[in-house]
Amino acid sequence: MTYTQDNLKHLPSRNRASLINNCCGIRSANLIGTVDTKLQENLAVFNSVMHLGSDPALIGFILRPLTMKRHTYDNIHQTKFFSINQIPRDLYTEAHQTSAKYKKNESEFETCAIEKEYFEDYTVPFVKKSKIKIACRYESEYNIKENGCVMIIGKIEMIAVDDSGVSEDLWINHEKLNSIGIGGLDTYYTVKCIDRLTYAQTHQDSKSIYGAQKTTS
């Protein structure tokens, strides 16, 4: 099946969105937690969280156009902080429910039955069941002129990872942490590690180092 620009234009909008959202593959599944200045909590599922660099440690995600109220965006601008929480396999239905259009005064932690926790020095909420929790400070944003979306960039201030999935060299095994992935907007996948290879060098074959990994626990 091949779709040209003309074909895509004439597809029903939901079919077109499903095709385009899924064609780039499986993405990370995360919940972003925020609060406003009155400490009203908000939690929302995102499939666009991306690594931007390790020195400085930067992370980014994409927000839809600001043509309507975006509680995550408003809260980040008010407090300058947000949390990123990996979605484990046993939480995906509750995580998906956070995409519903709840009112500003409704906390998705409560409405979607997701247990929260707080870390000292941070007012933003974290997802207790998450095996990877990241605290980020707002750094900047970029408007994407082609479609009106916004890229938010945050500086990583803290990472909390469950010991069961971290090797001695701080490599994270997402299979052991029961991380999941998202295809498009509504499809959830399990994660399986098939291998980990040595650093690629010219004229030298990469070797498997997966079997030699040891966790810190």
Task: Indicate the percent of residues in helices.
Answer: 10-25%
Please, what is the average pLDDT? 94
The major beta sheet can be summarized as: 7 strands, antiparallel
Morphology call = globular
Alpha-beta classification = alpha+beta
Q: What is the CA-based Rg, rounded? A: 19 Å
**In DSSP terms, counting alpha (H) and pi (I) runs of 4 or more, how many helices?**
5
Name the poorly predicted regions. none
Distance, first to last CA: 48 Å
Q: Biggest sheet, strands in spatial order?
A: 3-2-6-9-10-5-4
Series of H and E elements: HHEEEEEHEHHEEEEEE
Approximate strand percentage: 25-35%
Write down how many β-strands occur, each being a DSSP E stretch of 2 or more residues: 12
Structure characterization notes:
The protein is α+β, with helices and mostly antiparallel strands and 217 residues long. The N and C termini lie far apart (48 Å). A hairpin with a 6-residue loop joins strand 9 and strand 10. It is globular and about 55 Å long. The chain has five helices and twelve strands. The longest helix has 10 residues. The chain has a seven-stranded antiparallel β-sheet with strand order 3-2-6-9-10-5-4. The model has no long low-confidence stretch (mean pLDDT 94).
Write a compact overview of the structure shown.
This protein is an alpha+beta fold and 217 residues long. The protein has five helices and twelve strands. A hairpin with an 8-residue loop joins strand 7 and strand 8 (126-127).
SSE arrangement:
Blueprint (H helix, E strand, L loop, with lengths): L4 H5 L3 H10 L4 E2 L1 E6 L5 E6 L3 E5 L2 E7 L7 H9 L1 E6 L5 H6 L10 H4 L4 E2 L8 E2 L4 E12 L6 E12 L18 E4 L3 E4 L27
